[in-house]
């Protein structure tokens, strides 16, 4: 499922890479950027965590002419007179403006590196609102954001992830170069798919999905229990042959209520007595419903 | 209607004033008849259907007009959204008016996803199949011969259903045709379309909520849903669906602050909503993402402010998904609160363990019970061991450890 997400099939998607101090999601994010660049799409990076040089250095081998870096790294809060991009510019109008400036033709992919930086300085409800508007507006095709889950309260992480169409949670793997990705993907119809995959990232930023991690929780059936067939060595016959079954089915059990028995009880046999009654004029027949007064 | 139906009747012109005698036939004809409603069998409240037959049964026949149903969303908001859509679809089919408010998705999107009604569904509600008489030829070995006393007992139904039909059936695999949908009058409230100013600091109410409440009040007054207002035309019901209240998109900070600034915003709103509904012919379904709200006490007071409250707990992503006990279901349904309308005690659902599942075409709520254990080893082991211990005394005393699974 990770490779599907890298190919980026769905428009209007919002993907969150959620990491913690145990395992950084920065590498995976760079792989996502490279995958988008290789598809000849425009990429806008809101960079707060790594500098432009570092990012371009990491993206060697990918066509970077469509990459636009909005520098929030050097001066994120606008302390100097000429800030390139500040945290407070994170709203719909400004973002649409800077995205439209460079790529009028095709909707671009917006990379937010990272959401945690923004969430520290802007109120979560404003961030959620902007993200939702970006998702709905047409300027941006896909939003990919990095979120350091251990930096925020559980509710904040939950609120932001509630908006996301896909969440990839990165956790350390068994080996040094491996990591485990827990993927939750919500389709537009409301169906939720979940998967867990081990991946590693090569030098050229391609992601190799290795396998699904072995289910440690699932219990292996005990082989001894499986082999033993309790009906193997019986001292009596447990199975019926066809003739035996026929004979068994012929037998009427005492508690069965067969058709013959029923008819015998309902219709008396010829020769026995029967009551015939015809009402005459003297019979007092009550026309009224005796239960008329009941409110039923 | 929180006030009993009779109070509504007073507003209506006296149609039966022609009759002079004090004798009155005991009929239900004098109650107001609005399509898609019926009086409750328990307390005479006017009920509307939620669209989900089993949920109606659970809530004591349906939703009383003038009350609020709170649905605590499941983690991914797929099933709670389904309940909301059922509720709105039922309103469309019954020609009620709708009011849909949302902050996340455009209300039009929600309306487009409404499930298609199955209108010619006479054969749907067939009684449970009668078990065949044992004298009929039985081909399969599995057919059990059973004593005649037990033959005609009804099958145990785990699906919740009442005997009489109320509400319609829907096919969730299809969406409702646009012609049917557009026939219903619908009021929309999409928060991003309403400009909000920053509210003054002292106000306990959020701007978004007060806008919503004002818009709701306006609709109720303008369209004549108020009980006290002048009698305009034939009465109708207003169905109000409010999606994901309390989420960050409504500007609420309940979900990400331990000590929210607008702690009382949602509760204040719910008070206002309740006051509005009590005096009008309207009924509301509110969904709240309760898994995001950290403060349990606050969630409790939100629940108290609604009349009915149910919570959906989806198995998706929890360890319960793989639990064999739950393999037939998609999630659990908890009834948090049942309404107390004009009475001290209320009818409680007879069964507390409820689960829901989404079949291919239908969402249904069922009683959760253990499936029969058909496997060879699972629960018989202990009995087998007991039998093994009692070998000396048992008639089949020659048993070795090899056949400990035979218990007889």
UniProtKB/TrEMBL annotation, chain A:
Residues 210-219 have a biased composition (Polar residues). Its main location: cytoplasm. It comes from the Eukaryota. GO terms for cellular component: cytosol; elongator holoenzyme complex; nucleus. Residues 280-296 have a biased composition (Acidic residues). Pathway: tRNA modification; 5-methoxycarbonylmethyl-2-thiouridine-tRNA biosynthesis. Residues 210-231, 263-296 are annotated as: Disordered. GO terms for biological process: tRNA wobble uridine modification. InterPro entries: Elp5 (IPR019519), P-loop_NTPase (IPR027417). It is found in: Cytoplasm; Nucleus. Keywords: Cytoplasm, Nucleus, tRNA processing. GO terms for molecular function: tRNA binding. Belongs to the ELP5 family. This is Elongator complex protein 5.
From TrEMBL, chain B:
The keyword Protein biosynthesis does not apply. The gene is elp4. Belongs to the ELP4 family. Keywords: Cytoplasm, Nucleus, tRNA processing. It holds the Pfam family PAXNEB. Coiled coil: none annotated. This is Elongator complex protein 4. One of its GO terms (biological process) is tRNA wobble uridine modification. InterPro entries: Elongator_complex_protein_4, P-loop_NTPase. Pathway: tRNA modification; 5-methoxycarbonylmethyl-2-thiouridine-tRNA biosynthesis. The keyword DNA repair does not apply. GO terms for cellular component: cytoplasm; elongator holoenzyme complex; transcription elongation factor complex. It is found in: Cytoplasm; Nucleus. Component of the elongator complex which is required for multiple tRNA modifications, including mcm5U (5-methoxycarbonylmethyl uridine), mcm5s2U (5-methoxycarbonylmethyl-2-thiouridine), and ncm5U (5-carbamoylmethyl uridine). The elongator complex catalyzes the formation of carboxymethyluridine in the wobble base at position 34 in tRNAs.
